[in-house]
């Protein structure tokens, strides 16, 4: 079962499923950007780092940068979810709004690839991921804003559709993914259910592509290690797809 990030979050507690959603689109005839990190030679024949590409990823690259079930350990299954235009919640603190913005169905200025949902047998572990691309320096600006917010925002109240949810944030130690990445936990207090939910989140950037993901595990004593492994897999797929 799929739920919105905040709308219907009570169901997420019940079925242990949480996801982001995004519209899949992108031009088929866009030019493929040069691989990040490629080198060119100056007039003296010496290699010099290539300038970072500001060309958005193509639809093919977005798909190639997104996880598939075959990229995950045995026991995981996946499917493509429907598109969503859910707006971001409003944070009660301005320094927390960048994190709230990443909860929306679509990202301002971003073009989304396939919206994937994965789960293990019994749905004890759930993962949602999608990759976006931006014009110019939009990907770097988006990712930097998340990093800045995590330095200053430790707790907030998010409001969506008139409903308020208390949330907390804490940075996680996780493998680096892509050129830049931020891993953190988001705790959600479900007062009506007398329960708390902790979600592991990832935002990773490679060139003009940004992957965002949410992982939630129920009764998994190895969830921290599992998330670290997933981060590594998502980072590798993002880099390969963005540079391909």
Outline the structure in words.
The protein is an alpha+beta fold and 244 residues long. The chain is 22% helix and 32% strand. The chain contains 5 helices and 12 strands. The chain has helices at 9-15, 59-64, 97-101, 138-152, 223-243, and strands at residues 39-41, 47-49, 76-80, 90-91, 110-112, 116-120, 125-134, 155-160, 163-171, 180-190, 195-206, 209-217. Strands 3, 4, 5, 6, 7, 8, 9, 10, 11 and 12 form a 10-stranded antiparallel sheet that branches. A two-stranded antiparallel sheet has the order 1-2. The protein is globular, with a radius of gyration of 18 Å. It starts with 8 loop residues before the first helix and ends with a helix. The model is unreliable at 1-43 (pLDDT under 50).
Classify the helix fraction into a percent range.
Answer: 10-25%
Question: Quick one: how many beta strands?
Answer: 12
| Helix count from the secondary structure assignment | 5
Secondary-structure-derived class: alpha+beta
Portion of residues in beta strands equals 25-35%
Largest sheet: 10 strands, antiparallel
Measured distance between first and last alpha carbons: 33 Å
Which value, in Å, is the CA radius of gyration? Answer: 18 Å
Concise description?
The chain has 244 residues and is α+β, with helices and mostly antiparallel strands.
């Amino acid at each position: 079962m799929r739920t919105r990030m905040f709308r219907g979050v009570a169901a997420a507690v019940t079925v242990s499923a949480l996801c982001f959603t995004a519209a899949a689109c992108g031009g088929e005839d866009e030019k493929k950007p040069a691989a990040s990190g490629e080198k060119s030679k100056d007039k003296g024949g010496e290699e010099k780092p290539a300038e970072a590409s500001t060309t958005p990823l193509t639809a093919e690259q977005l798909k190639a940068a997104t996880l598939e079930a075959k990229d995950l350990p045995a026991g995981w299954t996946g499917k493509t979810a429907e598109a969503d235009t859910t707006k971001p919640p409003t944070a009660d603190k301005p320094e927390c709004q960048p994190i709230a913005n990443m909860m929306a169905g679509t990202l301002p200025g971003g073009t989304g690839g396939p919206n994937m949902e994965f789960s293990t047998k019994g749905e004890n572990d759930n993962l949602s991921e999608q990759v976006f691309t931006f014009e110019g320096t939009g990907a770097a600006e988006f990712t930097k804003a998340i990093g800045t917010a995590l330095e200053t925002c430790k707790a907030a109240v998010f409001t969506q559709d008139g409903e308020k949810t208390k949330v907390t944030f804490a940075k996680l130690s996780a493998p680096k993914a892509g050129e830049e990445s931020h891993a953190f936990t988001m705790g959600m207090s479900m007062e009506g259910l007398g329960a708390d939910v902790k979600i592991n989140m990832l935002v990773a950037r490679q060139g003009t592509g940004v992957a965002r993901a949410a992982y939630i595990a129920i009764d998994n004593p190895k969830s921290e290690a599992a998330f670290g492994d997933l981060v590594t897999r998502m980072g590798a797929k993002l880099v390969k797809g963005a540079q391909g």
